[in-house]
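Intended use. Records like the one below are meant for learning the mapping from a protein sequence to its folded structure. Do not use them to infer anything beyond what is encoded.
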Amino acid sequence: MFILLWAGLVLWGTLRACSSYELAWCCGELSGHVHLVMGWLGVVGNSQGMFILWAGLVLLKQNVCQLSFSLLVFFRFDFCAIDSEKRPSENLGQVLFGERIEPSPYKFEFKKKVDCKPVCTKSYNTNKPEDKAHLDFLKKGMLLNYQHHWIVDNMPVTWCYDVEDGQKFCNPGFPIGCYVTEAGRPKDACVVNSDFKDKDTFYVFNHVDITIHYHVVENEAAGARLVAAKMEPKSYKHTKVEAPDCAGGPMYLNNKFSGELKIGYTYSVQFVEDTHIRWASRWDYILESMPHTNIQWFSIMNSLVIVLFLSGMVAMIMLRTLHKDIARYNQMDSVEDAQEEFGWKLVHGDVFRPPRKGMLLSVFLGSGTQIFIMMFVTLFFACLGFLSPANRGALMTCAVVLWVLLGTPAGYVAARFYKSFGGEKWKTNVLLTCFLCPGVVFADFFVMNLILWGEGSSAAMPFGTLVAILALWFCISVPLTFIGAYFGFKKTGIEHPVRTNQIPRQIPEQSFYTRSLPGIVMGGILPFGCIFIQLFFILNSIWSHQMYYMFGFLFLVFIILVITCSEATILLCYFHLCAEDYHWQWRSFLTSGFTAVYFLVYAIHYFFSKLQITGLASTILYFGYTMIMALIFFLFTGTIGFFACFWFVTKIYSVVKVD
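Structure written out for the chain above:
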């Protein structure tokens, strides 16, 4: 009860801190997952570097997330487009995340200043149904605060503006326009300009001022490196649309407008030499504008407090209780003393009895080991900087490739434990290891992809990529799993420190707190408390299209989570053994695995409190992908709990004398 009460207080304090922090976030979500990208590769010459712009949109709604999986690609908004440029290819991670890059007509040369250069002019006549549909679609996009996302030299072009307390926030995107309500209240980006004041009116950002910061490379051939790319969106009606001058009032569009309208799109570019920003730290100005550090340190301190508490409890059991128990048990020489055994030694003849459904448990352990190693290696490489946000899609690509290559450990662990459980159906075991958990994930993902196809979303995975993933699974992962299972079955079984009795011991009636279900429910609270805040940032990065880069914090939380799951499971395992309940295998797996249930509950809370998702398809997509994450997290944490408890049980029964 004390553990449950203390964990509840910790979570309550964490929830309060996180809730107060969330007000500073700008919530949003991809729609179509298409980005506006400027491609500029490597070091450019003094005057010959050519910039190429690409195009796309992101749906971003202030303090409200809204998912839309219909085909809302850049060209449906009737912006300036180009057909001659070839689309850049995306890697596997980008395809899985739904990122699509499209070309656009914005081009300019290095160190060549551009002033109010026209891109194109769009003409509309509301009397024509097609033009009216384009205008209505554009107004809907501004009302929902759709945003352009640009990238230059694989860096986001940011819109930096002042926020509270004199801080500057750099947003990797800018809106296509904004809206002033019928009551005269400016929404979203309309608050930045006092000229945006007409009621029930839309204002189109049809001009951008781009500033490219660079520094000259001294130790290489004559050239320069881009270290920052910033822009400022503006709205100009232009005195003459055919010859734009970036003058006049803002480009407005009344909600009840009818007739003819021309919108001229223009841009200006200037280059600024900056010797203070190094190439390696060019992302810092974007990341430093996101005030995450304080809440991250609070999360780490909260997790460390939980770990210290559990470590103290486990140390007390190990050093005091267990030490006294073992010393007392080993001093029992007479038969009368042996007949008075009590506590966890009583079940020494049953503690290594094979569990029910040993086949399924061994398969879960194999898949969990595969996921654990994959996550550890991926986060380790991310901490070293190999999977930074600059390498788009690298995180997901690395995770998928590692999962495919780690089939051997999965097969080995599953076969080794299945053999120790006394199983003989090795073919069924290896086939289930290959296809059960990966098959459930793939089936869920395939159904989600079918929904995306049906909705016409550009985030749907192409058929060729789907075939490639199946080829990786069947041609690489499955054979490696068979190899691991071969060596696992070939090796001698795990030797236990005590013999198992032929007749199972009857388990005495348990109190409420020593029953399986209450222990499992309580066991998942403390591990979830360690990841609670970090989980908020991860969900924001997935569903709100916010940049995630704090892999150092995440790796530290990962280590703390492993320690917390292990210690919480060992603690509860000891209590149950003292109550003469020797069914520890499944309970240890489910105790730490129950953290995934709390993860699922929090994801549901996040869905109703942070997102505004309308439509059955979008709701199914959210919960479909959430179920995949919950299953992976269940296998990962459950495997940690089982191995911790297995080590603990083997250790304590190996140091006690048993006749």
